[in-house]
Amino acid sequence: MLQSRFTRSRLLNQVLATTTLLAFIYFSLNNLLPAIRYNVVPHRHPILLDNAQSKARPGNNTSSPTVHLVIASTKADDTSWTSRLTIPNLTILRYISDDPSAPFHPPKPKGHEALIYFTYLHDFYDSLPDLTLFIHASETPWHVEGTLLRNTTFALSQLNLHKVLQQRHYFNLRVTWRAGCPAWIDTTKTHSDFDEAEEPFMAEAWRANFGVDEPVPDTLGGPCCSQFAVTREAIRRRPREQYRFSRDWIVDSTWSDAILGRVCEHMWPRLFTDEASDCGYAERGSLCQMYGVCFESEGELEGYKELWEERERLKERMSFLRAVWDAKKAAGAKGRFGEVNDEIERQLSVAWRRGHA
Ligand SMILES: *[C@@H]1O[C@H](CO)[C@@H](O)[C@H](O)[C@H]1NC(C)=O
Ligand SMILES: *[C@@H]1O[C@H](CO)[C@@H](O)[C@H](O)[C@H]1NC(C)=O
Ligand SMILES: *[C@@H]1O[C@H](CO)[C@@H](O)[C@H](O)[C@H]1NC(C)=O
Ligand SMILES: *[C@@H]1O[C@H](CO)[C@@H](O)[C@H](O)[C@H]1NC(C)=O
């Protein structure tokens, strides 16, 4: 009795082991190996229009403006990509939020990029270049549009600095509004009724930083994300004390970093321009005027953006885990990815050539 139960369970174990092994072999052949092989073969790199770079700027204009690139970073960030920027007369100032021994750092690791920007604006007020670019540490943040290849190197190398100097004075590097215009933030919202987390804080922040002479607008708007170019003159519209005050206001605040970063994001236009909001320019016009990427119609621009979104969805589908799960589908996605990339490249080249005709 005992003996036979033992034999049966040993048999069962053997059957189980064999089944598991077979299942594993099956899985390996069908999913794991293709997924590994497929991930070893690199995905084709996104198009770069590298050759576009050198021709982008009004190159033979010998009077290039002087430029500071202020990078808001933490110790962990890799900002080495900025050394490949070819903007003439560029000085890179990397601020490191959590390293008090870094040459450039804010008084405290606080308030996201906002405290860094105010620290720079105060400290360099008397020695500003013609133009300062304020950016985050990542080369490929989602803040940069697909029309600019979601690539800050590409965006900055296409940006027409002369037009910032002569026409815009303050220019948000992002030109897409999405929900940002005409009214993104409702400053009349309260802590018991709001859509955006910073809304109930906005009016108080505004009054604290701008005082009674500049009443709080009911709504604020603009493209998001706190990456922008601004001229010396635009910065000096306000006295140095303004930037010291705002810097110290952040240092002393009890609000969270996220709230501080967001309320400041909505104050940049008012600091540097006559307007409280930054909704006076349409996306397609700005893209053409400032970056030389000129889509012929709104429809053409929308078509491009849809392609870019498809590209993002395909990229997700091509991840290793997804490929292990369903190798065939991932391979299909990869095929389509190539087509979409080609079409993006084609459409963007046409738009770029139109902007440089
Ligand atoms: C730039 O070069 C073009 C052609 O070589 C010339 O016609 C133009 O005057 C130049 N512009 C400046 C600002 O030097
Ligand atoms: C050359 O640069 C100067 C100084 O920024 C500017 O005033 C001028 O308009 C530029 N010329 C061209 C042809 O871009
Ligand atoms: C800016 O760069 C131009 C050449 O690109 C150079 O002629 C000029 O002297 C530079 N100006 C400064 C202030 O470095
Ligand atoms: C961003 O664009 C630049 C120039 O267009 C290119 O050299 C670089 O490899 C790109 N970076 C990424 C992460 O795609």
From TrEMBL:
Q: Which PANTHER family match?
A: DUF3431 DOMAIN CONTAINING PROTEIN, EXPRESSED PROTEIN
Instruction: Determine the domain of life of the protein's source.
Output: Eukaryota
Record keywords: Membrane, Transmembrane, Transmembrane helix
Q: Name one Pfam family in it.
A: DUF3431
Transmembrane segments in this chain: where?
A: 12-29
Protein name per its UniProtKB record: Uncharacterized protein
